[in-house]
Amino acid sequence: MNEHERAAELLTWQVIGRLGGEDLNWLSDHLENCTQCRAEQRVQRRIRDAVAAQPVVEFAPQASFNRLWQQIEADANIDNPHATTAPATAGSRAAARRGRTSRWLKTLAAAQAAAIVLLGAALWHRQPASFAPEYRTVTDTQPAPAATDEIKAIFADQVRLADVKEILAGTNMLIASGPNAAGVYTLVSAEASSTTAARAALAHLRVDPRVRFAELTPRDPGAPAAR
Amino acid sequence: MNAPTSLLQQQREDGDRRLLAKVAARDREAFRELYIIYHRRLARFLVRLTRRYELAEEIINDTLWVVWRKAAEFRGDSRVSTWIMGIAYRRALKTLRARGNQLLDTVPIENEPLVAPDELGEAETGEWILLAMQQLPTEQRLAVEFAYGYGHSCEEIALIMNCPVNTVKTRLFHAREKLRTALPGLAGVEVKP
Fold it and tell me: Is residue A159 part of a domain?
């Protein structure tokens, strides 16, 4: 690196006021005697002025903050339904510090559990009002139920209850069971016996960044329905 | 290379640290204050990076949500603004990649020279620079942004972008060269062959 290249590098920090010590002294001396580097200094000042003077984007930060705060409060309420968002006391601050590390994991687990309950209940109510046994006898006259494809899915770690609802609503799928020990959910189409729907849902799930894994698995028609 | 901070920068840092300590103690008003300050700071580079207001807002909220959760873990090894910028930078890249990488893919390859748009002939130099910056590869553009726009030191930018200091220097070197090439009228400097 020659001295002009060194000067050009240092000028970046000099024009933003982040250069000091020997580097600044050396650069000042060099600039006194170098027309080329003084021109470079003017260039860099213009770049600085142009970048720094860009108009501030007009947002409504208070409205955005309110949305974020609602989300934080919702998460906190799922974690601890008795929690308040009133100004913290010394005791509650200490408790908050103790619980902070695991709070989000608890929130996620609670959100997923709530999703299972809610969506499981929805699935239950969407079933035909029939409590016919899941087995068949040789004298049954009703046609056997068609096999329904299931989707095994794993959601991303940061996915929240609202995300799960949105993902499932967008694919018209319901949680049939899960998560198992590996975090796998079993999803079924809200449209009874619709393999086509399951395949369409699979395509959507696979492009959704909130879904880490999705795979179609044909369900054994003899197996009991998962609830 | 020394990276002194001005009195104004130091006062801002002191204020940020006071607010962050209160946020760590779950002080809503302090969080709101910090949010308003950083909303403005982050919006500028995120809008230019994403070119979409609603996506920039989403990344801002993701970033400040992480700040709310992790405030107590801030060790004070860097400036608060460096820490928050780093979170925003990573969230932005992650969001863009999750959305198909289309914006990151549209930027020119690393060392391709810029071409000054014809329509810039009558524009002011400042506008030239901003328009030419849009043609820089993302990493070079952000390095320019963090240095000239936000006044971060080389070491701070390396922390934000999670890369070696020499990589920051290289990105800035290439960015300067391209801007100069694209803007032959800049400060009356002759274009290098």
Answer: yes
